[in-house]
Amino acid sequence: MSNGYRRHGLTGEAKRHTFDTLFQRQQGKCLLCGITGTGHQNLYIDHCHTTGAIRGLLCPSCNSNLGMVESTGVLHLPASEMHVISASVASWLNRYKGIILLYTQEGCES
């Protein structure tokens, strides 16, 4: 279990309950791209690193790409500055930018 879960109070039964609740609410799909996950190995509990608020379940690709986008701050940069991220992350960001903007704003309100 990762450190992030412990830091935000999600261990054992609390983590399982949170995952199961989100899995049912999202109908087993990644909240960003909509790909269907098969359970704990294919979907991750995502949280805002500023507030600790749980945002939803993400597939490995969206989880990794969102982490890169948030850590570089590229989400709010003009297209001319996209060179700071890889082409695959830039392509993902272009495809889902609208939902990512909503997702990150709503999920990090304090």
Write the layout of secondary structure elements.
Elements: H1 3-7, H2 12-25, E1 44-47, E2 54-58, H3 60-72, H4 87-106
Offer a concise description of the structure.
By secondary structure, the chain is mainly α. It has one domain (3-106): His-Me finger endonucleases (His-Me finger endonuclease fold, 3-Layer(aba) Sandwich), CATH 3.40.1800.10.
Overview of this structure, please?
The chain is mainly alpha-helical. It has a single domain (3-106), classed as His-Me finger endonuclease fold, CATH 3.40.1800. 47% of the residues lie in helices and 8% in strands. It has four helices and two strands; from the N terminus they run H-H-E-E-H-H. The chain has helices at 3-7, 12-25, 60-72, 87-106; strands at residues 44-47, 54-58.
Report the end-to-end length measured between terminal Cα atoms: 26 Å
Number of helices: 4
Largest sheet: 2 strands, antiparallel
Question: What is the SS-derived class?
Answer: mainly alpha
- Report the CATH superfamily: His-Me finger endonucleases
